[in-house]
Recover the amino acids of this structure.
């Protein structure tokens, strides 16, 4: 299945930053999109594309974003954002909300509910629920589309969370869990070779040391029967 990931805005998009100016919304959105993309690589039959410019230099227009999703024939569109409230001052509004289009498409609503539940579960932030809005990316996409607002840049406590890598990873994993639940995505089985490649370290298990080779071969045979891959070596 094809999943389009949309980190809202660009690095230089006006407004769109924490009250103290120490984080652009783009920094949060794009990092989360990156982590979602990385996590989705661990699932079978999933391909992904970004709706945004990964350098952040261009704030890709909303029309281009949705046109690209439509022409690629994405199955799902996930737009990632951080919220804001009030007029440029720290504010008490907090929590997480997920949006679907005003017509409440059935599949989008089901996906939004799952993602919203996961987001609240892993972050323990206030559950503001699944809401509807006439947002361009929800209206103009020809596929299931949701938009996640993952915390408020205008809330001091949440701004600090939005800046942290651990929070960004939690949010990304929650989005992936929601997608996996909705579409029954299966994790790829990690083979031992991949395991070795990832860690770049090889751990050996020694069962015994024998002065007579036939004794070593005998143990090796027993282990092979049990399904272990065995090598007899000589020191
Ligand atoms: Zn936004």
């Amino acid at each position: 299945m094809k999943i389009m990931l949309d980190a809202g805005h660009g690095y230089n998009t006006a407004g769109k930053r924490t009250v103290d100016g120490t984080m652009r919304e783009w920094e949060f959105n794009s990092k989360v999109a990156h982590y979602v993309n990385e996590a989705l690589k661990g699932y079978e039959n999933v391909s992904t594309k970004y709706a945004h410019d990964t350098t952040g230099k261009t704030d890709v227009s909303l029309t281009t974003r949705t046109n690209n999703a439509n022409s690629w024939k994405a199955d799902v569109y996930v737009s990632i954002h951080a919220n804001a409230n009030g007029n440029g001052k720290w504010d008490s509004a907090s929590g997480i909300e997920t949006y679907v289009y005003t017509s409440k498409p059935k599949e989008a609503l089901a996906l939004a509910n799952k993602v919203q539940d996961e987001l609240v579960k892993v972050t323990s932030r206030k559950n503001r629920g699944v809401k509807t809005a006439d947002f361009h990316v929800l209206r103009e996409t020809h596929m299931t589309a949701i938009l996640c607002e993952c915390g408020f840049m205008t809330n001091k406590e949440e701004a600090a969370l939005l800046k942290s890598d651990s929070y960004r990873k939690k949010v990304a994993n929650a989005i992936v869990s929601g997608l996996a639940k909705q579409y029954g995505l299966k994790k790829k089985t990690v083979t031992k070779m991949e395991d070795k490649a990832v860690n770049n370290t090889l751990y050996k298990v020694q069962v015994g040391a024998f002065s007579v080779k036939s004794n070593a071969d005998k143990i090796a045979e027993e282990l092979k029967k049990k399904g272990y891959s065995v090598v007899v070596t000589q020191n």
About this structure: The chain has a mean pLDDT of 93. The chain has eight helices and six strands. The pocket of zinc ion is lined by residues 8-9, 25, 81 (CB under 6 Å).
